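May I ask for an example protein's residues together with how it folds?

___
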Amino acid sequence: MLQSARPLITGRPPCYPHPSVVLDDLSFTWPDGTPVLDHLTATFPTVRTGLTGANGTGKSTLLRILAGELSPTAGHLAIPGSVGYLPQRLTLDTDATVAGLHGIELSRRVGTLSGGQTVLDALVGLRRSRHDVVLLDEPTNNLDRHAREYLYDAVSAHASWTPTLIVVSHDIELLDLMDHTAELHTGSLTVFGGPYSAYREHLEHQQAAAEQALITAEQALKTEQRQQVEAQTTLARRLRYAKKDFATKRRPKAIMNNRKQEAEVSAGELRTAMARDVDSARAVVEEEAAAVRRDDHVRIDLPDPEVPAGKVIAEIPSPSGTAILQGPERLAVTGDNGSGKTRLPEDLVHGRCGRLFTDRVGYLPQRSDDLDEDATVLDEVRIAALTTDPQRIRAQLARFLFRKDEVDRSIGDLSGGGRFRVSLARLLLAEPANQLLILDEPTNNLDLATVDALVDALASYRRALIVVSHDEVLLDRLQVGSRLCLS
């Protein structure tokens, strides 16, 4: 029986200060037949829960179901009370008004705000609304340090804002403020009673034990297989001796026939027992292997675009004059929300300020709003690589975790992380290779493993790079040499 994703239970259990969210055998499949959530049964406690998982595991889809935007394909959902929701794609709705964020009369459009201002206004609106359950999908995306501190304070243990809170995020600092951690992984949902760092430590110990159990099981299987081979060798030797005795007629024929039959029965029983022991040991190996994670990650290999060290790539206006970017240099653009960090690279790319000395420029916008919602993943990437064989592009997209039929999915059906991987693939698979990359908040919507893959790829990158980011850890890891602060 299908159930609406709207709240099914009203009121609050008497033992809880706030309502809990209950999933009962919940499943969701996209209209094209792609499964996302498979028979999830779990309860989100009446406190603060951080929801984690790799890109594409269904975190945003689950929040959309909880918010009532989508209906589950099967199963039941119970949410008592009202629900407030901050979607991951909030900044893409550029025609929405600020009034819709605050619940007050303001006619200013979201498209006139920076990404950080949009998210911060929406957070203020959610606090004003006093919902029973609040869902936040990547709320720290686009936020500067001051805005992040506002969010951290708002959801901390001592805050006066205390709804049942479910937060999808890859921000470890935010996740460590949560009371519980939930993870979507390979179709299952695990809820752990502790913040993210504690969960990761628990998971590492669990995986270490699983790895050791697998090694032990594999050793036991090898032992059983070796014993089976030894037993078969012994049986074959006995059979040769029996045939030789029969041929030379060393004993009476009746006795030899009886012994031959007994030997054959005994050999059959032994073979069956040995095969059963091997099958049993193999089943243990398969069971232990299933407990060991073999997570797949984005793998990025960047071609060398041969940018000479002395080549001037760009002249960029700054409060203190003009910044000149040469060869494979790296420049970070920083500043508070609303200071113009996003407008600067947009204006530079579109020729409204500064000057570019190469037409091989790859630009990754903060909003990922330059993708055609109706186009497929393959179509979008081919735009930047028209001379590349489509089959080769399909093979390359597998490195960005788009495999087989996934390359034919519509952009509009992808999560924020999926959309970003399309934008990133289009940028990095361009032919000819770009000599300048401009990345605006490149870690938005990315899981931690994909951030690591991106950093590793850019570490050996020999092109000019401009990074707009609030993430100081990322800038340090990228070894950005120059800073342009717009605050």
